[in-house]
Amino acid sequence: MKIYEIQTKYVMVGCAKYLKKIQSPDDMNQYMKNAFDDHIDQEQFWVVLLNTENIPIARYMITLGLVNQTQIHAREAFRFAIRENAVSVIFAHNHPSGNLSPSTQDIQSTQQLVSAGKLLDIPVLDHIIISDNSFYSIRNTHSYLFN
Q1: Among 7, 30, 73, 86, which residue's Cβ finds the most Cβ atoms within 10 Å?
Q2: Which DSSP state fits 77?
Q3: What pTM was estimated for this model as a whole?
Q4: Model confidence over 88-121: pLDDT tens digits?
Q5: The pLDDT of residue 67
Q6: Where are the beta strands (DSSP E) in the chain?
Q7: What residue spans of 32-73 are helical by DSSP H?
């Protein structure tokens, strides 16, 4: 009988060495610079995984959508966080139109993701909407969703 050894190695995708702590929506916006460049005309939904010091472990695109919408489900949103042992997460998505106002679906998705994060004991710290020139923190304006 032969015994084989298998070694598994995870590679962080789309994450340069970034040792700066995420302390604000502006820090998150800076961290996500250029992340949306490959599909600039489509909505993209990303998760940033954080360690105990709020330093990013990795960032992953969860979904790639249409010009004005993308679907998101907690199952996909938290799979990388679970696999990489993230302590908390921040979600980000872009609005190719440049309009930073969150849609009703953005608010509902945030509420569902926060609830799922509580169940998994992986807090959602924020959900940022990013455009070419600016960003919008859902936590700053809808803090009740995160309680």
Answers
A1: 86
A2: H
A3: 0.82
A4: 999 999 888 888 999 999 999 999 999 999 999 9
A5: 56
A6: 44-50, 56-64, 88-94, 124-130, 135-137
A7: none
**Closest-CA residue to 131 (of 108, 107, 101, 103):** 101
pLDDT surpassing 50 at residue 2: yes
SS3 content of the chain, % helix, strand, coil (to 5): 30, 20, 45
Phi, psi of 92 (to 5 degrees): -145, 145
Tokens 């190719």 map to which residue? 96
CA Rg value for the chain: 16
Region class of 44: left (phi > 0), else alpha (psi between -120 and 50), else beta: beta
Fold of 25-146: Cytidine Deaminase; domain 2 (3.40.140)
In this structure, how many other beta carbons lie within 10 angstroms of the beta carbon of residue 60?
21
